[in-house]
Amino acid sequence: MLAFTRAVGDPGPRAAGEVVPPTFTACAAIQDPAHMRGLRPVGAPARAAAEGSTVLHAEQHFEYLALVRVGDVLTMTESSGDTWTKPGRDGGTLRFSESVREFRDAGGDLVVRSRMVTVIPDGAPR
Amino acid sequence: MTAVPAVGDRVELTVCSELTRTQIVQFAAASGDFATLHVDEPAARAAGHPSVMGHGMFTMAATARAVTEWFGADALRTYSARFTAPVWPGDRLTTTAMVESIEAVGALGVARLHLQTTAAPDRVVLVGSATVAIDLDETHPNVATIRRLLAAFGAQDRAVITEILAPDCVWRVPGANALSGEHRGLPAIMRLFGLLKRVLDAPPRFDVADIAVSADDRVVLIQHVVIAINGRTHRFKECHVYRFAGGSVIEMDEYQDDQAAIDRAFSADAVAEALGR
Question: From the candidates B79, B258, B262, B264, which should be mutated to test the interface with A, based on the most A CB atoms within 10 A?
Answer without folding.
Answer: B79
